[in-house]
Amino acid sequence: MAKAIMVQGTMSNAGKSLLAAGLCRIFKQDGYRVAPFKSQNMALNSFITEEGLEMGRAQVMQAEAAGIKPSVLMNPILLKPTNDVGSQVIVNGEVLGTMSARDYFKYKKKLVPDIMKAYDKLASENDIIVIEGAGSPAEINLKTEDIVNMGMAKMAKAPSKQNATSCYHKQPAQQTAILFWLFFYRFFYKLIFLCVHFVFFHT
């Protein structure tokens, strides 16, 4: 079973996807079999795989960094907003239906088996899984039904780190995994970008 490393951030657009891609490239260059994973992604634009299935573009970019073909296993749930309060729900690359935010919040725990089936399949085929969170894990209103941040860390048996609001309790480290807290602003974001750019284009 693969080891996990998880990247979480303080907000959307903090640089999680870029950092996860950089880690995928670094682990590949070190000789590991590595794959990206994000249990739930929200994006209006999607990528169509060779099998005709939809997935998030960020995981496609990360798969390219890892030197492997993109697969819906890397992004089992994709939410494509249809209006201010609803999204088209895509599971394993296929449309499940359109739900309001309220309905999806009630329903999403039923998708945990799909998430874990995809994760376990990737974990059985790789040495390292680079997991990306979504938004911020400190969104208290989403804590109880979380399937993408601390909830995913727990499901993947990756250790969690108590945040500043003390909303989450620490989980025991059952495998060698690291949960990154990314408390950086634009200056650090640009610094990471330059580092990853160097890795991609100068090695």
Folded structure, characterized:
With 203 residues, the protein is an alpha/beta fold. The chain is 33% helix and 25% strand. The protein is built from six helices and ten strands. The chain has helices spanning 16-29, 57-66, 101-107, 112-125, 150-155, 186-201; strands at residues 3-9, 34-37, 40-42, 46-48, 54-56, 77-83, 86-91, 94-100, 128-132, 178-182. The strands form three sheets. Strands 2-9-1-10 form a four-stranded parallel beta sheet, sandwiched between helices. A four-stranded mixed beta sheet has the order 3-6-7-8. It has a two-stranded antiparallel ribbon with strand order 4-5. A hairpin with a 5-residue loop joins β4 (46-48) and β5.
Strand order of the largest sheet: 2-9-1-10
Q: How big is the Rg?
A: 16 Å
Count the beta strands.
10
Q: What summary fits the major beta sheet?
A: 4 strands, parallel
